[in-house]
Amino acid sequence: MCYNCGPSRRSFTTLLAAGVGIAALAACSPDTRVASPTSAPSASSPQTATPTPTMATTTAVPSGAASEPSSSAPPSKAPPSGVLSQQFSLSDPASQWVIVNKHRPLTPLQFVPADLAQPRVQLAVSGEASLLNSTTAGAAEKLFAAAASAGVTMTLASGYRSFQTQTATYNGYVSTRGQASADTASARPGFSEHQTGWAFDIGDGGGACSFEPCFADQPAAVWAKANAYKYGFVVRYPWMLNEITGYYYEPWHLRFIGVEAATDMANRGIGTLEEYFGLEAAPGYP
Q1: Pairwise CA distance, residues 214 & 19, whole Å
Q2: Helix (H) and strand (E) counts in the chain
Q3: What is the rounded average pLDDT of the residues 193-202?
Q4: pTM of the predicted model, to two decimals?
Q5: C-beta separation of 270 from 65 below 8 A
């Protein structure tokens, strides 16, 4: 989600209204950047919502639509077609399978990961935004190293985001735009996937198109889309599936779910975590 989405956010909205390109309306939050010519100018990332009663404490087995639905199609409710070797909670924010969307807030709302660490990767930010939980940090180091071996330079453009940071950002949007408009541009406090430490935004080493629709064509985004699953990551907010995820396409926002689950999703052509785990779509707040 984006940190300082000013011009970028407005340009996304304009594109959407005009029916052209992609509108990257996501959850925003300010960050502190490392002074560098290649630093990403802003960082955008989706956030989440309220758990459905039947799934709130479930340790689920992925369910499976083998093909990606249209943006208006509901998530598949088919029974699981396969069982992974390990299962994790969908509600515990310390779980690598926790699902945070506009129907599933974090519990507790002010959750703070106990093991925040700064990964040894190229940074475009500093402070809390340069942190991830330790598992995601280790996986990110492998991801970035593999990209570098392929001649692609990635930067970490937005990592952990605290409840307090999200509160200040969201309230700023509400005070200037009203709540209805704010909800299209910023996640409500406690509904941000960044707060879990399991997600982060990437930038391209060249610094082009950060948090803009054209980022989808940059080397970092192209490589990540094709290869991130090998290191346990998925592109959390895919193209044309905003009616399920609640956010428009964000080719920069990666989410760690583990190599086994990410590979299973890729092999079965499942686009969203909501579909994979058999959860309801979350296009807006209840």
Answers
A1: 15
A2: 8, 6
A3: 97
A4: 0.76
A5: yes
